[in-house]
Write a structure and sequence with these properties.
eight-stranded mixed β-sheet; four-stranded mixed β-sheet; 6 helices; 12 strands; binds zinc ion
């Protein structure tokens, strides 16, 4: 463990593409700064809708080969962000995309939504005890917008953080480790409003425009405790998002998912600290997720 870089950041996401949309700039920034950035993705995103007509044959109701294809998209995205440590929870294909809430896929064999939280968390404990991150980033309890795999990723990440620190839990998975700071992904309401105003003014080339309610994790500005200015990494974030071509269409500073509704691409990324001490002065936002971390 002496060989580990000084700063270690772990991000837990549900599907390939979530990491680039939520944290692309943050990941590129810390990777560039020499921090160890570890991404754990919980499913292959097998149930996603496919945007390009030429790849529609991969869809779950046709050839059902979207999962392996998205493994490749994720690898390409990580190359753009300079992140070399990216893994799938329990290994590639251990947990399957559960589809949107209420679908029969929620309860299919291997569906992440139906997984036992403690069992799934065990896989993450192994990663935590080996990488020993000071900072964990994941979703809020609603998964940002209610997708079952996002809610489950939240539960598994939070439970794993607890179990990793518990010296009585699975000593075979490594020495206990307490994560100093845990953040949830957020978007500041003012930034979302400003972004949509910009989008409406620019009239980007998408059939429609989404609404603020469609953006996961939007909260009042007062709930934001950390803000990472990723302006210098805007191009790399956009490139990482483009690498997820089955899921995302990027047009300049805007993008759309499979619903063809344009939304702003945020290069400043927002977080809410939910465990650990803020490194900022009282009432101020942190500009570094590692602020105040001593080890
Ligand atoms: Zn997702």
């Amino acid at each position: 463990m002496k060989d580990l870089p000084a700063r270690r950041l772990l991000l837990v996401h549900a599907h390939p593409d979530d990491e680039s949309i939520n944290n692309g700039a943050t990941m590129a920034l810390y990777a560039d700064a020499g921090a160890h950035v570890t991404l754990v993705t919980c499913t292959l995103g097998e149930e996603g809708e496919v945007i390009p007509d030429g790849l529609a044959h991969l869809a779950p109701d046709r050839e059902n080969r979207l999962g392996p294809h998205r493994v490749g998209e994720l690898a390409a995205a990580m190359k753009e962000l300079g992140v070399t440590d990216h893994r799938f929870l329990g290994g590639q294909g251990r947990f399957r995309d559960s589809g949107m809430m209420g679908l029969e896929q929620n309860h299919r064999e291997g569906a992440f939504w139906s997984a036992d939280v403690d069992e799934a968390a065990g896989y993450l404990v192994e990663v935590i005890r080996s990488v020993r991150p000071q900072v964990l980033v994941t979703y809020d309890p609603d998964g940002g917008y209610g997708h079952p795999d996002h809610i489950q990723a939240h539960r598994v990440a939070m439970r794993a953080a607890e179990l990793a620190a518990d010296s009585g839990f699975r000593q075979d998975l490594g020495a206990p480790h307490r994560i100093a700071k845990i953040y949830w992904n957020r978007v500041a309401r003012s930034a979302a409003e400003e972004g949509f105003a910009r989008l409406r003014a620019a009239g980007a080339g998408f059939p429609g425009i989404a609404e603020i309610g469609d953006v996961p994790g939007v909260v009042d500005d007062s709930d934001i405790t950390a803000e990472i200015d990723g302006t210098a990494y805007a191009d790399r974030k956009a490139a990482a998002m483009r690498a997820h071509a089955t899921q995302i269409a990027v047009d300049g500073p805007f993008f759309a998912l499979s619903n063809d509704m344009g939304q702003p691409l945020f290069t400043t990324e927002y977080y809410q600290l939910v465990a650990g001490e803020s490194g900022a002065a009282p009432g101020e936002r942190e500009d570094d997720l590692f602020a105040g971390v001593s080890e």
